[in-house]
């Protein structure tokens, strides 16, 4: 059965339809030891063999008298960063091997005993999405409602009649036998946040009770079989549990290197999420798909935080957030000391359609992700370690530190090559190749398949991500989101105030990078620390 609520504005005029893409059904990749086939092992041994030959035959400048202090600095910094990575890996293994399986058994016992939530609400927004993607999303929702036996309502935050018609027609043709209702809320202002706010206000006027479960999901996210069923019992096991987020995999329509980069990032995500969940919190409630208890979502404070989240900045003044609705929901629950968990065996598939330049899309994603992290990280840190488990608080602090520490070693290597010998860069490259392979061995545990290019992608991912964070640090108001109409905020404009802000951001970026170069050069001994006599001589002349 479908039902259309009164739209918040007049129906949209005819729009240009999106290109048609045929999306293959998601396929399950080999897990565990099955992905370690002979080809993967051969590539790793070949990689190690090349590294061994390079270490044995090429000149080693790492421990020369002029550069050994640089090597020691890079090594000590590496021990800290790799130690932190190893800590996450151990915590993730504990959660995935011991903690979560016990939690899953308790949840399955409640489910077998007959417990069910009263109602499932699926809240998602979409804007001129590709037809095949939208139909697969709705099909996955219908499957979850049917297999769980829990009545459901789809709350669609819509900006265009094109999407509404696709969804309504699909439900009319294929879901007539299900206890599922469609409610369409047409937004009257642009932006995903306002669309979600309108849906939540409609829910407040509807039959939603505090212990109902609300599934937040994007219009391009396909639920995996049984994913909702694996999340629901956890809310019975933990009465104080307010939200869970799930595993993700990517279906990429675009360049293969982009697909490999995204699969590596999702492997990183699995490792980090399991580590964080061991403390009963996560660092983001992923907007692609998370499940919430309705109690907090019905509060006006929550709705206003989500639809009108903003920041007061000393340079950019007060500005609203464009994207990052998942960070706003996370911050609200973190502030209210709510339990949040990660469900590793509940999977969904996000569809990434890369049109145009893959590199440009990659940088745009980094700017959006990094900007959302920076805008929310500072206020979350300000809550203090008493508002959350100390490990989670320190993870937030580490996010701010890592964007600088990642840049230290390449800066040192470049300085050593300029001031001493270019051969140092060759030795540094071998060092990076070996260490990133060691880190990749941890990632292979969480990746769907073993990719020998992970070490190189991992290093450049870290380097580009750190550089983009430094750039975004002084431009928090400047936001761009290629989805939902290629929205922008805080970009361009006129007037002396905007001109001052733009040039001040450029100055602070150059200044911070220069201080980084100077600081690491002085600390490592590449440049001598000026004595009082040297300073006096320079001032007199």
* Helix fraction bin: 55-70%
Strand order of the largest sheet: 3-2-1-4-7-6-10-5
Shape descriptor reads globular
In percent terms, what proportion of residues is strand? Answer: 5-15%
Question: What's the total helix number?
Answer: 17
Structural class: alpha/beta
How many β strands by DSSP? 12
- Can you summarize the main beta sheet? 8 strands, mixed
Radius of gyration: 25 Å
Distance between the termini: 86 Å
User: What is the averaged pLDDT score?
Assistant: 86
Runs in which pLDDT lies below 50 for 5 or more consecutive residues are 1-18
What is the subunit arrangement here? Answer: single chain
Helix-strand string: HHEHEHEHEEHEHEHHEEHEHHHHEHEHH
Report on the structure:
The protein has 541 residues and is of the alpha/beta class. The protein has helices at 38-57, 68-112, 131-148, 161-174, 192-205, 227-237, 256-277, 294-297, 300-307, 325-335, 358-382, 390-419, 423-444, 454-473, 483-486, 496-523, 532-540; strands at residues 120-126, 152-158, 180-186, 213-218, 221-223, 241-253, 289-293, 310-313, 317-320, 339-353, 479-481, 487-489. The protein has an eight-stranded mixed β-sheet with strand order 3-2-1-4-7-6-10-5, with helices on both faces. A two-stranded antiparallel sheet has the order 8-9. The protein is globular.
């Amino acid at each position: 059965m479908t039902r259309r609520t009164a739209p918040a504005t007049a129906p949209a005029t005819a729009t240009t339809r999106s290109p048609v893409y045929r999306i293959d059904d998601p396929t399950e990749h080999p897990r565990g030891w099955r992905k370690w086939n002979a080809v993967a092992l051969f590539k790793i041994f070949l990689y190690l063999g090349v590294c061994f030959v390079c270490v044995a035959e090429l000149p080693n400048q790492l421990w020369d008298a002029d550069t050994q202090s640089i090597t020691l600095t890079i090594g000590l910094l590496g021990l800290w960063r790799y130690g932190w990575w190893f800590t996450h890996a151990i915590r993730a293994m504990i959660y995935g091997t011991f903690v979560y399986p016990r939690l899953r058994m308790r949840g399955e016992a409640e489910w077998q005993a007959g417990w069910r939530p009263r109602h499932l609400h699926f809240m998602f927004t979409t804007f001129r999405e590709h037809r095949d993607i939208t139909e697969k999303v709705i099909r996955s929702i219908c499957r979850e409602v049917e297999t769980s036996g829990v009545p459901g309502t789809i709350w669609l935050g819509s900006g265009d009649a094109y999407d509404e018609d696709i969804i309504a027609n699909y439900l009319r043709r294929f879901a007539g036998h299900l206890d599922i209702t469609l409610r369409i809320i047409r937004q009257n202002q642009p932006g995903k946040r306002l669309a979600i706010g309108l849906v939540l206000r409609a829910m407040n006027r509807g039959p939603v009770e505090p212990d109902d479960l609300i599934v937040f999901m994007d219009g391009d996210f396909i639920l995996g079989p049984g994913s909702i069923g694996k999340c629901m019992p956890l809310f019975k096991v933990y009465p104080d549990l307010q939200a869970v987020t799930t595993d993700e995999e990517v279906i990429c329509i675009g360049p293969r290197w982009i697909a490999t980069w995204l699969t590596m990032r999702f492997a990183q995500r699995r490792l980090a999420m399991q580590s964080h969940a061991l403390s009963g919190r996560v660092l983001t409630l992923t907007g692609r798909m998370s499940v919430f208890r309705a109690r907090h979502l019905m509060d006006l404070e929550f709705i206003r935080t989500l639809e009108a989240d903003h920041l007061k900045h000393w340079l950019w003044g007060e500005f609203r957030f464009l994207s990052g609705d998942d960070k706003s929901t996370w911050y609200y629950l973190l502030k209210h000391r709510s339990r949040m968990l990660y469900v590793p065996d509940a999977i969904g598939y996000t569809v990434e359609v890369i049109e145009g330049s893959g590199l440009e899309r990659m940088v745009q994603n980094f700017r959006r992700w990094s900007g959302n992290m920076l805008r929310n990280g500072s206020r979350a840190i300000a809550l203090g370690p008493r508002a959350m488990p100390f490990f989670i608080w320190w993870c937030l602090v580490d996010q701010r530190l890592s964007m600088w520490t990642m840049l230290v070693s390449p800066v040192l290597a470049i300085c050593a090559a300029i001031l001493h010998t270019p051969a140092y860069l060759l030795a540094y490259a071998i060092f990076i190749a070996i260490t990133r392979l060691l880190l990749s061995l941890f990632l292979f545990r969480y990746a769907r398949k073993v990719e020998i290019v992970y070490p190189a992608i991992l290093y450049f991912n870290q380097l580009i991500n750190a550089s983009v964070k430094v750039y975004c640090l002084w431009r928090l108001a400047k936001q761009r989101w290629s989805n939902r109409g290629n929205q922008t905020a805080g970009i361009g404009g006129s007037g002396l105030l905007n001109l001052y802000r733009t040039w001040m951001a450029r100055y602070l970026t150059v200044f911070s990078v220069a201080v980084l170069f100077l600081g690491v050069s002085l600390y490592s001994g590449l440049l001598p620390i000026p004595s009082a006599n040297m300073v006096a001589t320079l001032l007199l002349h």
